[in-house]
């Protein structure tokens, strides 16, 4: 399993062998043996290295998750013996959650459990997004937008932590902010919000698209347009912008966590979930 993961990560047998301290022939022999056992080709070999087939991607995802459970077994056993919660904790989060939701949560978590070692990676919430990182075994917990266009991969546990409203944000003091061009970014999308947008004849087609919500806020702050943004993205908005409520029919976005049925029982993940739920007022299923 470690060899499969290394070959996928390094995109080659030689590089995987070097990373693992093995010979290339040993890595090749191991992969061929695994392919015979599962009855499928796991890697396409070529002059530029090795890339996983669809079967290989599935096998590597399972391998990562099994290896993570083996690590958790040792960590949780030691924690049970000492009465502490410890070990690595891999978190994938989209940008605004990593900036505004996670810092106070991780501060309380590590204060209560100094042995926990959080590792946070910012993942764009498009395509597979943060939930895909959990499904692929690259993250223990994903902070995700629930109910987006991309469904949560099957077999994962999801819980909603908070529902954040969208608001109109525009340059402060502008006489007619709805006349400004729309600034948008790719992650700012769910089927629900898009349906709402379609029914609003005052919202123009986006003429400016940026990489993330921070760039959107900067452009609006500079007077270059208006935007419709969720609450997390507007945390700490500068005084050069004004935030206008969109009324009772405004769209909202659900934010929650995603993990696996196996990892939800581990000490570090349980502790993180407790802090997330406390920070969001308990969350809901």
Q: Report the CATH C-level class of the largest domain.
A: Alpha Beta
Termini separation (Å)? Answer: 34 Å
Measured on Cα atoms, how large is the radius of gyration?
A: 22 Å
Give me the secondary-structure category. alpha/beta
Compute the number of strand runs: 11
Average pLDDT over all residues: 91
Following the backbone from N to C, one meets helices and strands in this order, namely HHHEEHEHEHEEEHEHEEEH
The biggest sheet, with number of strands, parallel, antiparallel or mixed sense and barrel status, is: 7 strands, mixed
Q: What is the CATH topology of the largest domain?
A: D-Maltodextrin-Binding Protein, domain 2
Helix content: 40-55%
Q: What is the overall shape?
A: globular
Strand content: 15-25%
- CATH architecture of the largest domain, please? 3-Layer(aba) Sandwich
Domain count: 3
Regions with pLDDT < 50 over 5+ consecutive residues? none
The CATH H-level homologous superfamily of the largest domain: Periplasmic binding protein-like II
- By DSSP (H or I, 4+ residues per run), the number of helices equals 9
């Amino acid at each position: 399993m470690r060899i499969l993961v290394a070959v996928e990560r390094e995109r080659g047998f030689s590089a995987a062998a070097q990373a693992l301290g093995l010979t290339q022939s040993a890595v090749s022999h191991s992969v061929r043996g695994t392919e015979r056992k599962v009855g499928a080709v796991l890697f396409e070999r070529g002059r530029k290295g090795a890339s996983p087939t669809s079967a290989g991607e599935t096998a590597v995802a399972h391998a990562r998750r099994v290896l993570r459970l083996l690590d958790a077994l040792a960590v949780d056993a030691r924690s049970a013996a000492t009465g502490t919660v410890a070990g690595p904790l891999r978190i994938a989060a989209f940008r605004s959650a990593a900036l505004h939701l996670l810092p106070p949560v991780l501060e309380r978590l590590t204060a209560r459990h100094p042995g926990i070692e959080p590792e946070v990676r910012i993942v764009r919430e498009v395509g597979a997004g943060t939930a895909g990182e959990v499904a692929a075994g690259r993250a223990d917990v994903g902070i995700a937008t629930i109910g987006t266009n991309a469904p949560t991969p099957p077999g994962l546990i999801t819980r909603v932590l908070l529902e954040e409203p969208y608001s109109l944000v525009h340059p402060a003091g502008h006489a007619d902010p709805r006349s400004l061009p729309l600034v948008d970014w790719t992650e700012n999308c769910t089927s629900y919000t898009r349906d709402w947008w379609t029914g609003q004849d005052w919202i123009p087609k986006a003429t400016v698209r940026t990489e993330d919500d921070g760039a959107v806020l900067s452009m609006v702050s500079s007077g270059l347009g208006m935007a419709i943004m969720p609450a997390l993205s507007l945390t700490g908005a500068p005084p050069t912008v004004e935030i206008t409520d969109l009324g009772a029919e405004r769209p909202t976005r659900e934010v929650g966590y995603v993990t696996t049925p196996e990892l939800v029982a581990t000490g570090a993940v349980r502790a993180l979930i407790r802090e997330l739920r406390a920070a969001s007022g308990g969350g809901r299923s």
